[in-house]
């Protein structure tokens, strides 16, 4: 009789960081940039450094990693959930403090995004995350720190994070308790997610002691059975009622989760899920930058966005009475409703008008391209 013996070498600090920094890619709620030239990249020593746009509009590089990937939760969409066969390891808070400072002192990063799987309990995990931030603040580091808030963490742990961080995030994961039941049996949606998001909102509002600390969150799109309309409804409330800085959307990709997960049985292709994610980001932009309200967003009969045309064009097709828009006279918000016109082009139009230049053709503004061709039927000169 023969037996197979598997011997796993205990990874050293560098190896653990390689594992944990790669596993951190599952969390997007760190204000990661969306332009192609700003995407995450590997450093020469195989660790992830993220170029990001900060909530205040600034730009920096973050050192992004997990403190541990040893998890007691069973979030069915997560490759790191309890019971899966993955290379588990943890960093000690002082270990990570020293690693980050070596990067920072070398001028390679200016900030930290720190998350973790739930090791033993939410508060033990939060204690370790906060310890890293506390170490850095005691060493007079005044730079950007984004801390992940662990679902189920105590109010005291959350308050300590807010006292140490520049920004925090607690992932909402999906829209509503019914959809959440498909994702986890170890977490309670109202108690562990919605209530602490509300608490952070309350503690960071204008006039509070933690005012200035930004809050973000992330939806996992397509793992459960939520519609786009449900996601946008929740996203709208997070912005308008709780004052979040950003909402992020991550398309669920098959093969990562448990077989019973609705996303594993979905008929949508991975390409369609990525397009769906893109459409949600477009709606997010319309809400945050273009003056749209959640109830104005056009959805199909099943409550989902069109995969064929962008949401602003879909709105324009449903509201012919709004057009045409006078490019030389109408205000900024009307111009922003024109399909194909983005913020940069609208600002250029307003600059021309301020200088007294009458625009007689879109070719006065830029070379002919697909966006300008799309805008042409909706404008008069």
What is the structure about, briefly put?
With 381 residues, the protein is α/β, with parallel strands linked by helices. It has helices spanning 13-23, 93-105, 122-138, 155-164, 177-180, 189-204, 228-240, 262-265, 270-289, 311-318, 332-336, 343-354, 370-375, and strands spanning 41-42, 48-53, 59-66, 111-115, 144-148, 167-169, 214-221, 246-251, 325-326, 379-380.
Q: What value does the Rg take, in angstroms?
A: 23 Å
Residues in β-strands, percent = 5-15%
Poorly predicted spans: 31-48
Whole-number mean pLDDT: 89
- One letter per element, helices H and strands E, the order comes to HEEEHEHEHEHHEHEHHHEHHHE
What overall form do the CA principal axes indicate? globular
Give the helix/strand class: alpha/beta
Distance between the termini: 86 Å
Oligomer: single chain
Name the helicity range. Answer: 25-40%
Tally of extended strands?
10
Let me know the largest β-sheet.
Answer: 8 strands, mixed
Strand order of the largest sheet: 1-2-3-4-5-6-7-8
Q: Please, how many helices?
A: 13
């Amino acid at each position: 009789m023969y037996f197979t013996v598997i011997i796993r070498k205990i990874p050293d600090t560098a190896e653990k960081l390689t594992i944990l920094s790669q596993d951190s890619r599952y969390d997007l709620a760190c204000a990661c940039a969306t332009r192609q030239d700003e995407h995450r990249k590997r450093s020469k020593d195989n660790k992830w450094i993220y170029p990001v746009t900060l909530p205040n509009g600034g730009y920096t590089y973050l050192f992004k990693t997990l403190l541990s990937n040893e998890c007691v939760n069973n979030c069915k969409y997560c490759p790191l959930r309890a019971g899966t066969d993955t290379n588990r390891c943890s960093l000690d808070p002082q270990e990570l403090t020293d690693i980050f400072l070596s990067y920072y002192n070398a001028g390679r990063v200016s900030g930290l995004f720190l998350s973790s799987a739930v090791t033993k309990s939410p508060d033990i995990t939060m204690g370790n995350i906060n310890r890293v931030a506390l170490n850095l603040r005691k060493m007079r580091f005044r730079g950007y720190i984004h801390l992940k808030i662990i679902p189920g963490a105590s109010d005291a742990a959350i308050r300590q994070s807010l006292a140490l961080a520049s920004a925090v995030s607690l992932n909402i994961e999906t829209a509503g308790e019914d959809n959440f039941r498909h994702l986890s049996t170890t977490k309670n949606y109202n108690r562990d997610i919605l209530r602490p998001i509300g608490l952070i909102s309350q503690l960071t509002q204008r006039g509070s002691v933690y005012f200035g600390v930004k809050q973000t969150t992330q939806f996992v799109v397509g793992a459960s059975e939520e519609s786009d309309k449900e996601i946008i409804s929740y996203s709208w409330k997070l912005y308008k009622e709780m004052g979040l800085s950003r909402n992020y959307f991550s398309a669920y990709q098959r093969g990562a989760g448990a077989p019973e997960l609705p996303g594993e049985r979905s008929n949508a292709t991975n390409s369609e899920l990525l397009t769906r994610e893109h459409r949600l980001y477009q709606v997010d932009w319309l809400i945050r930058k273009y003056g749209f309200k959640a109830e104005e967003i056009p959805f199909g009969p099943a409550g989902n966005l069109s995969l064929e045309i962008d949401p602003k064009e879909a709105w324009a097709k449903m509201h012919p009475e709004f057009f045409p828009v006078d490019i030389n006279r109408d205000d900024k918000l009307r111009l922003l409703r024109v399909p194909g016109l983005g913020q940069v082009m609208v600002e250029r139009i307003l600059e021309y008008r301020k200088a007294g230049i009458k625009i007689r053709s879109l070719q006065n503004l830029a070379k002919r391209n697909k966006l300008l061709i799309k805008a042409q039927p909706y404008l008069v000169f």
